[in-house]
Amino acid sequence: MFTVFRMVLILIHFSCDLFTAFCNCFMILRRKCTEIWYSENLRTEVEMLTRISNRIKKLPRHIVIIFGAKEDTVFDCVRIIGWCITLGIPYISFFDISGYLIRNENLLKYELARRRPDLVEHINWNKPNTGFTNGITDSKLKTRISLLSSVDGKQEIVLLTKTLADAVVTGTIKLEEINIDLLDEKLNSRGIPDPDLGLIYGHICSTYGVLPWQTRVTEFYTLPLHVTMSVKDFAYLLEKYNKCEQRYGK
To answer: What is the value of pTM for the model shown?
Structure first.
């Protein structure tokens, strides 16, 4: 009996690997066809993104990019920021569980200013407890960029639980005052809307602990071939998001 179960398990794993290989081959073919099409009709990234924005009806308002364990992602961030600003997406969050981007925030800002100086005036770097409305500050429409790590995910829930427990013990807050509205206020200290679209670097569709209380209705997609994302990949995923029906639990 054990041998039978073992053989069944092997067959299941083989089937999954085969399906994954088929999906990767299809993605490669899709990317090649897209590259041929765009190379004949579009000469620059801006032209491509402009064409995409004119063709699709629904753009995400907030995108979260999940790097997981991947590091050295500064140049990826610079390119993605440029694409989002071109499309007018007002909120971008970058999450890496190791905190690499937070530790290298100055490097990211430096490379952004060096490579894309035209974007600097269109960006506001989001910090905790800095209130804003619809990405509008200083009377100019700007894109809000947030750098997140594990502290902003499940770990923040743990820290908030400890803080509230200490507050109840010291009498700072009453137990009956702890409700859903209070938790939502504390956990959404950055004031940004919930992400509409999540893009995950890697083969595995895992959120790596990113914003578990704010991604209830987020559409997650893994990036093709877990390598550097091209503007063609970005455009393809936006088209895929545009076709999805978000029913919000209905």
So the answer is: 0.70
